[in-house]
Amino acid sequence: MSRRGNDTHFLVTDSITRQLEKETNEKLVDVYEKLTQAGVDQHESQRETRLKETLANLQRIFPGVRGRVIDNCKPTQRKYDTAVAVVLGRNMDAIIVDEEKTAIDCIEYMRNQRAGQATFIPLDTIQVKPVNDKFRAFAKGARLAVDVITFEPVVERAMHHACGNALVCDSMEVARYVCYEKGQEVKGMSFPHLVGLHTDEQSQL
């Protein structure tokens, strides 16, 4: 009877030990993920700071540097913030300049200063396809991304270049309707209550 009691004790102890090890490992994984994310956030924050400092220098030295795309437009409503960010994608941090020569001068300056790299959108030479007006009345609850942002007329070409014919849908149901009912092939990322979709025409820009 004593032996059986001891065996039961060992089994309970072993079970508790395994549970504690599992909980400890889960906590360690959670801490590791938080530290990793903190490192990523810090790196992004440092990159953002360097980019802003570089941009400030470029604007001080070279006339016609108008700033980043994201700083030259604003969603008409807060609910569009995420979708607009997805639509802009890699163009979000692109720097708008009046002329191609200014872009070349900026790139040379950044190279000499070892200030990293940046994408430039020269307003005088950037290729922009006309917006396809059919998407303005394509489906209820779907609208062109360029129509849900405000910007100064002088940077209009840059905004059309960045947004193309991308559609912003108010819900996943609207996105499905555009894709399946209207037969429009789309590329995009979905979010709760809001969807940013790129039409095939956008991908050709």
Secondary-structure blueprint of this entry?
Blueprint: H1 2-61, E1 65-68, E2 73-75, H2 81-88, E3 95-97, H3 100-113, E4 120-122, E5 142-144, E6 149-151, H4 156-163, E7 167-169, H5 172-181, E8 186-191, E9 194-199, H6 200-203
Parallel strand pairs: 3-4
Antiparallel strand pairs: 1-3, 2-6, 5-7, 7-9, 8-9
How does this structure look, described?
This protein has 205 residues and is of the alpha+beta class. The chain contains six helices and nine strands. The chain has a four-stranded antiparallel sheet with strand order 5-7-9-8, sandwiched between helices. A three-stranded mixed sheet has the order 1-3-4, covered by helices on one side. Strands 2-6 form a two-stranded antiparallel sheet. Strand 8 and strand 9 form a beta hairpin. It is flat.
Number of helices: 6
Main sheet summary: 4 strands, antiparallel
Helix percentage: 40-55%
Average pLDDT confidence is 79
Strand order of the largest sheet: 5-7-9-8
User: What's the Cα radius of gyration?
Assistant: 26 Å
Task: Spell out the helices and strands N to C.
Answer: HEEHEHEEEHEHEEH
